[in-house]
Amino acid sequence: MDLQPVSILAMIALTSIATYVDLKERRIPNALTVSAALGGVAWGAYSGGLAGLLASIGGFAVGFGILLALWLIGGGGGGDVKLMGAVGAWLGPLPTLIVFLGSTLFAIICTLVLMVWNASASHQGGHPTVLSQDDANDPPVAKQSIPYALPVALSIWSLIVFQTIR
C-alpha cells in the first residue's frame, strides 16, 4: 500500500481543514467534503486509469458505507459520513478501512483524555474544557465527546508517518 504524494498532500489539507472547522463549529462543510471526494475520484481516474477510478469509487463506498451505517444508528453526524467518503476516494478501500479502525482507537483515547481532564478541572474548582460552544452567551458546558475529524486526522497522519518511515 503506497500512497502517492498528491494523495498525501490532499489528505493533510483535507484533514487539517476539517479538524479545524469541526473543533470550532462541530460541523464539517459539504463544500469541503464533496469537493474532496470529487477530487479524489478525478485523481484516481487520472493517475490510475480505470483501475484507479474503481479503487477510488471502492474507497469512497467503504468510507461512506461504514460511517453511514453508524450514522443510521445514531453515531456521528452527516459531515463525518461524507468526510470518510472523501478520505476513501483518495486512499482506496484498504487504507480507508485502516483509517477507520485507527480513528476508532484515537476517538477512544481522545475521549478518555478529555474525561480525565474535565474530572481533574472540576476537582480543582476550574471549568471543564469546552471543545466548541454553540452560543457565546451560554455558560460553558463540558462536552464528553470529540469531533470525529480529529481522530480521522490523527489516524491518517499516523498512516502517512508509518508509510514514510517504512
Note down, in words, how this protein is organized:
This protein has helices spanning 5-25, 30-72, 78-91, 93-123, 149-165. The protein is 76% helix and 0% strand. With 166 residues, it is mostly helical. Helix 2 crosses helix 3 (78-91). It contains 5 helices and no strands.
The coarse overall form would be globular
- How many helical elements? 5
**SSE topology string:** HHHHH
Tell me what portion of residues adopts beta-strand conformation.
under 5%
From the alpha-carbon coordinates, what is the Rg to the nearest angstrom?
A: 17 Å
Overall average residue pLDDT: 89
End-to-end Cα distance: 11 Å
Instruction: Bin the helical content.
Output: over 70%
Low-confidence stretches: 138-142
In terms of structural class, how would the helical and strand content be classed? mainly alpha
Biggest sheet architecture? none
Write a short abstract of this structure.
The chain is mainly α. The chain has helices at residues 5-25, 30-72, 78-91, 93-123, 149-165.
